[in-house]
Amino acid sequence: MLARTVEVTKRFGDTLALDRVSFDIPEGGVVGLLGPNGAGKSTLLSLLVGLRRPTSGTVELLGGDPRDPANRRRIGVTPQETSLPSTLRVRECVEFVAAHHPDPVPTDELLDRFGLADLAKRQTGGLSGGQRRRLAVALAFVGRPTLVFLDEPTTGLDVEARRSLWDVVRDYATRNTVVLTSHYLEEIEALADRVVVLGQGRILADDTVAAIRGIVGIHRVSLRADDLPPLPGVVSVERTDGRTSLLTTDADELVRELVRAGTTFDGLQVQPTTLEEAFLTLTGK
Ligand SMILES: Nc1ncnc2c1ncn2[C@@H]1O[C@H](COP(=O)(O)OP(=O)(O)OP(=O)(O)O)[C@@H](O)[C@H]1O
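Above are the sequence and the adenosine-5'-triphosphate SMILES. Below is the predicted complex in structure-token form.
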């Protein structure tokens, strides 16, 4: 086990950012943390990497305290927002970080791996947002970390840059371990086998990507009808202002069944649900 939290709660004043979160990071592969804005993903990472202390509960990193520098030296982190000294050149940034590690990746190799070789001499202040983001992610890998934490690593990257970063992460995770956060199931699907879904500070699901995909495939079908026949895949029903709203795992089949049953209805709408909505419905909160 590389890291774990046990019954971890984190409060910021009145805000309950994490609510009794227990979660393990075993060795090898990619763990995806998925959740909407404010779910607690960044807070969870900040506790795991020793930047913050939990209000209660315990956090372990590499068998010890995440605040111990000896443990932190073996991890790599890219926070959600990074500021790079604007007058330093790209190569100088990498060399600066490399100087803090006993066995860093050679600078040219790292720049090449992250598609930064042509930018080596540029000052970071002149880089585009996406180029800066790529450098910030690259810096997490300089020290050959056992465990890498990436908070929304591909924010601001174009499709090509995103795909090539995915390749690097995937390759790294064949020998080491990566934890990454994202709002997008697609990103996690491209990289991780396991997804931990956070919502309102709680773990809503911890499962394979395939299982989570099934849950997120839920749609909201809403319509006006007096009487509804039994319908397939329905996980919840709400009635407001004369409209009925059904959450279903198979919207197509539900609509076919409505027609087949000769139901009288109007105002039909089919919408994808948000992640949060899908999970909150399923967990009955
Ligand atoms: N330093 C802080 N002071 C006060 N509240 C905070 C602080 N950091 C986080 N929070 C609150 O804790 C909750 C969880 O925030 P967190 O940043 O962990 O969410 P997130 O899942 O990373 O969201 P996002 O996807 O927007 O980055 C939010 O309600 C946030 O407003």
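The longest strand covers residues 15-25.
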